[in-house]
Amino acid sequence: METESEPYIRLATLRLLHEVVADLNTARSLADTVQTVADGVIAGLGYELSAVNLVRPDGDLIVAAVGGSAGAEALMAGRVGSRASWERRLSMGDRWGDLRFIPYTEGWVLDEDDVPEWHTPGPAPRFPDEWHPMDRLLAPMYTAGGAGGELIGVISVDRPRNGRRPGAWGREALQMYAFHAATAIGNARLRANMQRALLRLEREQQALRASEESFRQAFEYAPSGMAIAEMGGDHHGRLLRANDALCRLLGRTASALRRCSFYDLVHPEDMGTLMRTSAEGGRAELRLERRDGSFVWVSLRNSVVADAADGPRFQLTHVEDIEERKRHELQLAHRASHDSLTGLPNSAELRARLGGRLCAHPPRPGEPGARDAEAGGLSRAYDAFDGPGGPGGAGVFDGSGGAGVFDGSGGAGVFERPGGSGGAGVFERPGGPAVGGGISYEPHVHAIAPREDDDVDDGHKGLAVLFCDLDGFKSINDRFGHHAGDAVLIEVARRLAGGVREGDTVARLGGDEFVVLADGLGRADAQDLAVRLRNAIIPPIRVDGRAVRVGASFGIGWASCGMTAEEVLHSADQRMYVEKRSRAKERRRAG
């Protein structure tokens, strides 16, 4: 640079400074920018050595670039000086605007600190403004272009080519250069951050696209049904997408499914289950309607996809065909509750059906029975259900419309109304089948036996229990073998089932004993039924080309609330033995 005593500044020097400042903004990366800053000091400001120290995230300063000396670069580049040591240097020496000049007479105290530097000893100055090798000139760089901003680095310069300390012009030029260097380094950092952000965004977008493609393929080509349904708004539950497996399962096109929801396809009896599953998520088993009108059992598993700000957005539903499994379950349940030989309900199923008709408390005197309720006396039958609650109240169901625990004079059951108000109800009584299908409830009506006077039929209808024991079966078994005996039992079961009304129960209790449950019969009706069934059994049965005959003895018992199923069966069994003993041997056996 020109000396301070020069009366003018040569235009070539000013152009050179302009060029090195312009070069600061042409570097392509932060590392290139920092190196350009160091080289610009050598090319445009007239120094033989420069170093650019940048502030790291931890506050210490690292030598990021060195210009003018390969030896100095090898010694200093990449080394770190502590922030405390740099703050000490910037607080001492002479202040030349934003610059800090530490003369050799004061800088000796810095020889032992940890700031990287390149100095060689030399003789004392021969004149006042001569540069000494141990002099230090620092140009801090700030984010706001001045000392009020945040420190981002320091430019260290050494060995002015004219051998003198910089004058007013040299100081101003170095300070201006530090300002432009800070701006260039800030811009380079911003570009680097933007490039990293763009690269990260591009990677995230690629990952998102890959994830979406993976989901699409998993959704479309899943072996089981998949659907996405809308949540909230006017079209809540409407299907947005359905994969090929679901379309094949329901026999419907994807466009047809997009016009409906699972609520349009579910079996009416499963509506409550679907509503609970849709609201709570989770899993449920229910029936969906196919295009041909048939229903298929499926397992639904819902996952609600929600947004932290907006709440639920849509619902992902996995639909698995469980028709075969349900068929096997029904077969297993049938095997567990039915006799393997005759196909009739077995002893356990008989007791369950009989127990479901009984409650633990006998009817009170004058209390209406089953016939009164069926004839329109439900309001009187409701008086039998004692319990708190009140009309329409929830809690204990006392016959006045309340929901909750249903207590039919001690015969407790669970009253469940799927689908909320107005839906079909299901009354489940422990030990008995559920009652439902279009009615909101079915209250328990006491089973009351007719009067014991056999000579008088008071017209009362009750639940008759006909206990049947075959006569002469043992001799067939002994003479012709168990195969013939099994064939006789199968035929007798067929004849008994064909001789009763729909809704009556014919069960095999075990061995050659059968039981018939027939509700709504008077004493005369029960006796007529026993005669008809006996007459149906008597005709010959052909087994392996031979005709065999068996007779039957019937005992008629009556089920009444307050009795157990065992007590009812024992009563009918005793009456059967009384009837068997009262008949002559030749009349008991039919042939």
Largest beta sheet: what is the strand line-up? 3-2-1-7-6-5-4
Number of strands: 22
Main β-sheet description: 7 strands, antiparallel
Mean pLDDT: 80
Specify the structural class. alpha+beta
**What Rg is obtained from the alpha carbons, in whole angstroms?**
51 Å
Q: Cα distance, first to last residue? A: 142 Å
Instruction: List the total number of helices.
Output: 19
Q: Uncertain regions: pLDDT < 50 for 5+ in a row?
A: 1-5, 368-441
State which percent range the strand residues make up.
15-25%
Helix percentage = 25-40%
What general outline do the C-alpha atoms trace? rod-shaped
Tell me about this structure.
The longest helix is centred in the N-terminal third of the chain and has 53 residues, at 168-220. The strands form five sheets. The chain has a seven-stranded antiparallel sheet with strand order 3-2-1-7-6-5-4. The chain has a five-stranded antiparallel sheet with strand order 9-8-12-11-10, sandwiched between helices. Strands 13-14-15-16 form a four-stranded mixed sheet, with no helix packed on it. The termini are far apart. The chain is α+β, with helices and mostly antiparallel strands. The protein has 19 helices and 22 strands. The protein is rod-shaped and about 155 Å long. Helix 2 (30-44) runs antiparallel to helix 6 (168-220).
Short description:
This protein has 19 helices and 22 strands. It has 591 residues and is an alpha+beta fold.
